[in-house]
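FORM 7B: Structural annotation worksheet

SECTION A. Query
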Amino acid sequence: MLKGFLKWSVALIAVLGVAVFVVGMSLRLGLDAPVENYRAHPVFAANGTVASSQPLASQAGLKILQNGGNAVDAAVATAAVLSVVEPYMTGIGGDMFAIVWSEEQQKLVGINGSGHAGALMTKEAIGDRSRVPDEGAKSITLPGALSGWAKLLETHGTISLAEALQPAIELARNGFPISEITATEWGLFTNKLFNDSGARDTFLIDGQRAPKAGEWFSNEDYANTLQTIAEGGVAAFYGGALGQMIAQRVQELGGFLTEADFANYQAQWVEPISVSYKDYQLWELPPNGQGIAALEMLKILEPYDLAAMEHNSAEYLHLLIEAKKLAYADLEYFVGDPDFMQTTPDVLLSPEIIAKRRALIDTNKAMPRADPEKSLTTSETTYLSVADKQGNMVSFINSLAGSFGSGVVVPGTGFALQNRGVGLSMLDNRANSVAPGRKPFHTIIPGFVTKSDEQGKQEPWLSYGIVGGAQQPQAHVQVFLNMVLFGMDVQEALDAPRFRHWEDNNVSFETSVPESVVEQLRDMGHAPQNPLMATAQQVFLGNNRGLVFGSGQAVMKLENGYVAASDSRRDRGVIAH
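SECTION B. Predicted structure
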């Protein structure tokens, strides 16, 4: 009997040990710990601020501001350092977008630093597939980020590209300690890195494992690549030896980039688009990005008295989810390379079309699925925000698409190439259909909000953004409404619990959304999903709450100075100047 009791006790202890471990890991990874239980506070700044997901990156940007540089200078320097310290999220192998408030010009300007499909990319070359591969050489599209960085500096900066790259070069060469969140996320993609010799040699310690928390990591190859660009300018990449080497290697692996793709590319200036909501104007960049979905959501929601509803109540969340379904149905069908879209943003956001979309919402019942507007159907990422003492503000986003992008690193370069080919469709007659030179549909979007003054003039109010793939427009709207309707400060607005709608009626909620609310939504026809138990994508993302529900940064302009915040779901890097 004693033997049986001891055996049972050991088993119970083992079970309890596993339970404690699971709970501990869940808390550690932020899956069950409500963000609002460990309230972070916004940072107030007199002269300027840098808000990013990583303190080392923000420090680099701050130093630029302290040395007399402006917000654009600091943004590019911060982005470059992020490509060193978060290489699975961002880098010169990816794309970028930015919205800049120019205090001198008193207006917003946008830049689209997204590349395009290689000249060799055709449906026939991809083969008998229903979709573009999500990793490997066939998923690679031309990287546009570096051209975007350079154009921003040339037009709105005060320092050279070489000066902006210097902090990143030093950090890549000398090394830096890996944060706990970075170590956790990096480790999720070890198997992906094993598939490519260049990736394995660059990003795995001894070619075997991801770096651990607190362990120093350096990237000599990337330091040398950035130094080459600093000395030779963007021409070293676009048309020079670096671009030639990348194109050759990608083709060897079965990909589609050519030397001419690099030589002929330049980032493009674009006009931001916006919609009004009360005294505010939400601004996004035009397609090929998904920012238009946030604008459509907001206009669909405009007539509802959301402020009278309890924040994150069932009736409130229901309306946001239904608006999201409708906006994303249009997004999927219509949005892609603007040169090939069947309709325009003005039409999608017109009062007539918005009214048609809104009429499909039943305030008591979830729609099983949303189709695109019929009358028009005839034919891992880093975000940062910077502000300076002159009043310039920058909303800046840079991404490799997937974590470590394609998983391909050209030996000797030190950086991963993006897999943005996943934004192209194998279906015909889409704006993002696979074709040589076609710009893919893009998920990464910087956001900006202006506010009407007493004379009705739009003044800069908020520079913000959220990473997380398709979560981004959903989160843009949630954070915007948190501040405009419910009076939250920037930190509260970022940290407040969010939902993420996936497809059909599948939707996930952060655990701090009350279970009673989730059950009400279930009764309305929604299908709440545990992010660890839903689709394969959700299971993968579910290892980190910031990847599931998005994480971001925000800088709000005050009458004097700024207040800034960084999402508590990831490392926080907010520094005041």
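SECTION C. Observations
Residues 2-28 form the longest helix (27 residues). The CA atoms of residues 327 and 499 lie 16 Å apart.

SECTION D. Sign-off
Analyst initials: ____
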